[in-house]
Design a protein that fits this description.
This protein is mostly helical. The protein is built from 13 helices and no strands.
Length: 296
């Protein structure tokens, strides 16, 4: 892999994490008008429809008929459902902590199934990332991990592991001959939305308060928090290891916290600020370690 290709992949992944970071504020506003399960359903289904409109019918038919696309949809949809249902039964801090720790699952699966190598620099960066996630999610306060139910905790942990499988499987699929990123992403989102329909029917509520405001926020998340960042992420993943991609995406909650500070007036604690710094250090260290590994 050329050095310039890797730098471009890092940049695209960082941009996707910035856009996903804005979803923290957008979803927080959107959930004032819609329930979380229904919001996830409309967001993924709408983004999938938007992307598939850009794809020719011949291209789309291959992806929609591919079993691996539907398996990715199952992983993504199950992760969304587990996260959203789990968040109703556990605390926000615990949900953020457990879901973002999914990068460790990505590292394990990438080592097992893709043969990714981990030197001391990468291992150190993963440790820093784990500590940083704990700090950003909890402010290093043990009390932040109290409350909620064991079932809710198990669901959000499962969400992180399901997304880890989604990372590794997407990486393998991206290197199949003839696979194109936009139809791949659109088909997976469409499959995710359709598979979330029964979950939404059981756990969701179809009522919407302030339809104009709700649809505006929903449209923003469809385009700028789903369709565009997923395409950018997939393009970056093609030239990165899944673990590198997952570590870079840990910037997402950092950006989310910054958006919350700028737009909602939310405040950082000292522990949360330290956690954000450790995450950024982990990203820099992992990217540098991967560059050295690939340049040998």
């Amino acid at each position: 892999m050329r050095h310039t290709a890797r730098e471009k992949a890092i940049l695209l992944t960082a941009i996707s994490s910035l856009l996903w970071g804005s979803s923290f504020v957008a979803v927080k506003v959107g959930l004032r008008y819609m329930d979380p399960v229904g919001f996830a359903f409309w967001r993924t289904l709408g983004a999938g429809i938007l992307l598939t409109l850009l794809v020719s019918r011949d291209d789309l038919s291959w992806y929609v008929g591919n079993q691996r696309i539907w398996l990715l949809g199952v992983l993504n949809g199950a992760a969304f459902a587990a996260q959203n249902i789990g968040m109703l039964q556990t605390t926000a801090s615990k949900a953020a902590f457990y879901v973002n720790l999914g990068f460790a699952g990505v590292a394990l699966l990438s080592w097992l199934f893709l043969g990714e190598n981990f030197g001391r620099g990468k291992i150190l960066s993963l440790f820093l990332a784990a500590v940083g996630v704990a700090g950003l999610a909890t402010g290093f306060r043990r009390s932040a991990l109290s409350g909620g139910s064991l079932f809710g905790d198990a669901l959000v942990i499962a969400a992180g592991l399901l997304w880890a499988g989604y990372f590794v499987m997407t990486k393998r699929l991206l290197h199949q001959p003839g696979v194109k990123i936009v139809p791949l992403t659109g088909s997976v989102l469409l499959a995710t939305g359709l598979l979330l329909l029964p979950v939404t029917a059981v756990f969701g509520r179809w009522s919407v308060r302030e339809p104009l405001l709700a649809s505006t926020v929903l449209a923003y998340t469809m385009v700028f928090c789903s369709a565009i960042p997923l395409v950018l992420w997939a393009r970056g993943l093609k030239d990165l290891t899944p673990t590198a991609s997952a570590v870079i995406l840990l910037a997402e909650p950092v950006f989310g916290a910054l958006f919350g500070f700028a737009l909602l007036g939310e405040r950082f604690s000292a522990g949360e600020g330290l956690g954000a710094i450790l995450i950024l250090l982990a990203i820099a260290l992992y990217s540098r370690s991967e560059a050295r590994t690939n340049d040998r």
